[in-house]
Amino acid sequence: MALTRICYGDSHWKLAEAHVNLAKGYLQLKGMSLQAKQHAEKAKEILTSSIVPPYNDNTDVFKCSVELFHTLGQALLSLQKYPFASSLYR
């Protein structure tokens, strides 16, 4: 993630993608739901504040967004935060 921050900066969607990948790793490999939730929320914050049209990588940003909400939903379900998790899947 540090290399991504150095290469792309603090507000690029690639940094959000790195946070999503780290969140997925925490959740799937370590079972650390709280850390996964924190990284997914950081990715969400980066994506919502940095994406401005026109953007050339729309499909990659969309894929990152889908993975973000899927991972965040899984983390919230694992933490038994059902109302928040269900709002992501609507």
UniProtKB/TrEMBL annotation:
<protein>
    <submittedName>
        <fullName>TTC23</fullName>
    </submittedName>
</protein>
<dbReference type="InterPro" id="IPR042621">
    <property type="entry name" value="TTC23/TTC23L"/>
</dbReference>
